[in-house]
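Example 9 (inverse folding). The structure is encoded as follows.
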C-alpha cells in the first residue's frame, strides 16, 4: 500500500475534527444549558453559549430536592445491575452449551435464531407478562428480554473459535463442563464479555418502552420514564420550591438539560473502564498455537 498523500492526510484530519465537533458540541451545549441561570437563558434568547458567565447548580439542586429523580436513579441502577447480571448469566450458559456438541443443540439453536426473524408483538408480550403475574413488577423489565439473540450469537461464535486442544486437555485432566467454563473459557473471553456486558447494561439503563408497558406505579418508574416527562412533555416532576432555599425556581430548560446530563453521565463513567478490559481481554485471549 502506498503512503497517503498530504492532501489525503489533511482531508482525514478535517473529517475527524468535523465528526468530533458534531458529537461533542451537543453534549457540551446540554451541560452549559443545565448550568445556566434563567436570567442568562432569557437574555440570550434561548441560545446558550458553551461557557455560562455565571454557572449555577440550581437546576441539579431542584431535581434532586424533590426526590423523584433520585428514586428513579436508584431504580435504574438496580434494574441495570440485576438485569445485566441475569442477562450475562443466561447468555453465557446458553452460548457455552450450544458451542459444544450436544444432542439437542441444533433445535435449540434454531429456536433462538427464529426470534431474530419473527417477533411475538406487543399485545402477546403484554398478555404473557400479565398472565405470569409480572405486571407492575421490576421482573417485567428483565425477564422478557433475558437473552438477546444477537449477543448470544456473538458470544457463541467466540467460544467456538477458542482452541479445541485446550478443551481436550482439560477433559483429560478430569475437568467437567462447569470447571472448564469458569476456569478456562471465561478468562479467555474477557473481550467479548466486556462488549456484551456493555450492550446489555446500556439497553437496561435506557429501557423505556418496557417500563411504559409494564409499570403502572409511578413510584417504580426508572430514569428514562422521568426523563420523558421532563423533556418531551415539559413537566417537572417533584420539584419543591421550598427545597431550593426560597429562591426562584430555575428555568425549565435548565432543569430538562440537567435531567439529560444525569441520565447520560453514568454510562459515560462506566465505558472507559470496560474499554480498558477490551484490550486486556484480547491480549489474554491471544494463544500461541
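The amino acid assigned to each position is listed next.
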Amino acid at each position: 500500500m502506498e503512503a497517503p498523500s498530504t492532501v489525503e492526510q489533511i482531508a482525514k484530519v478535517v473529517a475527524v475534527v468535523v465528526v468530533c465537533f458534531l458529537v461533542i458540541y451537543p453534549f457540551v451545549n446540554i451541560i452549559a444549558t443545565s448550568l445556566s441561570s434563567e436570567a442568562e437563558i432569557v437574555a440570550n434568547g434561548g441560545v446558550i453559549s458553551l461557557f455560562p458567565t455565571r454557572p449555577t447548580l440550581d437546576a441539579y439542586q431542584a431535581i434532586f430536592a424533590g426526590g423523584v429523580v433520585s428514586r428513579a436513579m436508584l431504580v435504574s441502577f438496580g434494574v441495570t445491575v440485576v438485569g445485566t447480571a441475569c442477562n450475562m448469566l443466561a447468555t453465557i450458559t446458553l452460548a457455552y452449551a450450544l458451542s459444544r456438541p450436544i444432542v439437542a443443540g441444533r433445535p435449540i439453536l434454531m429456536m433462538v435464531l427464529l426470534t431474530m426473524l419473527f417477533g411475538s408483538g406487543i399485545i402477546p408480550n403484554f398478555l404473557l407478562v400479565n398472565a405470569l403475574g409480572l405486571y407492575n413488577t421490576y421482573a417485567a423489565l428483565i425477564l422478557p428480554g433475558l437473552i438477546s439473540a444477537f449477543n448470544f450469537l456473538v458470544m457463541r461464535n467466540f467460544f467456538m473459535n477458542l482452541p479445541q486442544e485446550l478443551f481436550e486437555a482439560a477433559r483429560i485432566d478430569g475437568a467437567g463442563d462447569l470447571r472448564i467454563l469458569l476456569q478456562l473459557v471465561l478468562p479467555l473471553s474477557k473481550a467479548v464479555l466486556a462488549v456484551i456486558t456493555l450492550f446489555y447494561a446500556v439497553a437496561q439503563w435506557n429501557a423505556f418502552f418496557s417500563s411504559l408497558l409494564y409499570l403502572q406505579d409511578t413510584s417504580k418508574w426508572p430514569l428514562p420514564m422521568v426523563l420523558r416527562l421532563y423533556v418531551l412533555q415539559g413537566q417537572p416532576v417533584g420539584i419543591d420550591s421550598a427545597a431550593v432555599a426560597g429562591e426562584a425556581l430555575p428555568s425549565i430548560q435548565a432543569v430538562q438539560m440537567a435531567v439529560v446530563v444525569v441520565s447520560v453521565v453514568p454510562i459515560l463513567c462506566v465505558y472507559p473502564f470496560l474499554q480498558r478490559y477490551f484490550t486486556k481481554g484480547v491480549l489474554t485471549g491471544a494463544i500461541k498455537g
